[in-house]
Amino acid sequence: PAVEFELAAPFSVEYHDSIASTNNRARELAGEGATDVVVLADEQTGGRGRLEREWTAPSGGVWLSVVCRPDIAPARAPLYTLAISVATARAAREAGVDAWIKWPNDVVVPTDDTGDYRKLSGILTEMEGETDRVEWIVVGPGINANIDADALPAGATSIREEAGDVDRRRFVQRLLAEFDRYRTDLEAVVPAWRELALTLGQRVRVDRPAGELVGEAVDVTGSGALVIETDDGRVTVSAGDCEHLRPV
Length: 248
Ligand code: BTN
Hints:
Layout: E1 12-19, H1 22-31, E2 37-44, E3 62-68, H2 78-94, E4 100-102, E5 106-110, E6 117-129, E7 134-143, H3 159-163, H4 168-183, H5 189-196, E8 203-208, E9 211-220, E10 226-230, E11 233-237, E12 244-247
Parallel strand pairs: 1-2
Antiparallel strand pairs: 2-3, 3-7, 4-5, 5-6, 6-7, 8-9, 8-12, 9-10, 10-11
The chain binds biotin.
Biotin binds near residues 49 and 55.
């Protein structure tokens, strides 16, 4: 296999050279009662993005999904996504990349000081549970790691392009160690996220099912929603309602 792994407790790993989607496999495992299993692949043939989009996932990337069974209310689940974006940005910085977080959960590399960026990583979070309790959450970050520019979609970048190849085993270990630390201390997630956020202070446009919003991104709430100062006052947007966000 391209990557051989043993992970620090509490995680165990299920590695695939090639799989349709690590999130699909993690959902299956979650349904069977698994916990703290990391499904990891060198390549995905049917990678999935947010909002039913396709996700390009050639060999050389870090494509993984973590099965978690936290004792939290579903409203706090977005903090898991923020936690893994913090973990991803930190691991990317350790690999020499100028990584920042674009709300809600893309890890990006700025191209200049106008707020423009290229995307390094996206996260697909899926969960099941009751209204008051989560049964399982699958958090699936995809990182363009050791991938050539010509294999990337438009607007994307990779660790190889930004800083040269990364040791993927080390990268994954760092990412999961950071994630584990924040998921066990959810109060620390938003403050850590704020320090890495590219979005705060930016004038942005957000597309939502309820219509478009334009204003300055001024804060993130304790549950991870973005606060936007518009001409008509402050509006809070949850990650689930965000179809697209861009600086204007
Ligand atoms: C997005 O930005 O739209 C989210 C992309 C998430 C991609 C990752 S790769 C690992 C995991 N398995 C998938 O099928 N998707 C996520």
